[in-house]
């Protein structure tokens, strides 16, 4: 046994963060991480996002082996994705696929591309997360058959997300005061980050068409505008301000969820370019970090918001890490109730979690968020000279997902 341990130590001399920082030719690395501004209006589209990818990627678009788009509400998504890629300038030879796992769709797109690269199917791949919630509003769950609805847990999958937020607040005794305190912190951190220019490296400007309606004549005209920053951040937000907002769902639980402590309805797009380290070095590209592992888990649909409580320990175990090894967490703020519970249950240091605000302040375009967390996290990890990033989110119908990324030393 001692001899086996000596051999293992010789073959794998490093453990934990040090082991993950070792550079291998087959590492799946990120060479581009960009996003659009997150906006409330009908600004931005998948075609615009893909055009920005071509402009910022520094690779021949023909070299991309596959594109995977995470989106949730888009009708006929494959038609939209394929036509958008062609219109943006990707050649006909570049294929595209679409994935929908609700709020984790962007992370799933990233994971699919990473696994394709890791298995040798492709050498370069593009993961995109996109959602236009203004053009495609969430209509809720479709009707189900009586045989499915007869199962209590299956029936919970169809319930509104606001109901699940109130269940978390009630079941785990999350107070309105705590929820509004955390929500205010999200706005304050996002305001500080924006004013300090922290988002400028990750946001690429989008020039879009908007409609103007003359209040007198009623006629509509179109004009082109360039959008450069998020528009959901409410400057000067305090807990006291938020406590004045009435309950959004007084019919459920304690009615502690409000329009001020829940994620905003937003449009946005984000993209990451992945490839082997070997290929990145051959092309002379800057490596932002590498994908280590992704974990997905299931849980009761009625408290779907606590998904990160299960997914984060799972992905850390897969990566051989402890919570103390992580420099930054980006956890989606679907609702303050679930965010508060996840942070408290996992015992996370708030100085490491959503340091530049989250979805309560910035918005949560469903398909975009999984990639947006990676983009924001890697940018901040570089600014802080950190090593390990964990992204995580809850998922409608009762799931959770998390991923580990390591910045190149």
Automatic annotation (TrEMBL):
GO terms for cellular component: peroxisome. It comes from the Eukaryota. Residues 286-406 form the Thiolase C-terminal domain. Belongs to the thiolase-like superfamily. Thiolase family. GO terms for molecular function: acetyl-CoA C-acyltransferase activity. The active site is at 103 (acyl-thioester intermediate), 364 (proton acceptor), 394 (proton acceptor). InterPro entries: Thiolase, Thiolase-like, Thiolase-like_sf_Thiolase, Thiolase_C, Thiolase_CS, Thiolase_N. It comes from Boletus edulis BED1. Pfam families: Thiolase_C, Thiolase_N. CDD domains: thiolase (cd00751). Residues 46-277 form the Thiolase N-terminal domain. It catalyses: an acyl-CoA + acetyl-CoA = a 3-oxoacyl-CoA + CoA. Keywords: Acyltransferase, Transferase. This is Thiolase, N-terminal domain-containing protein.
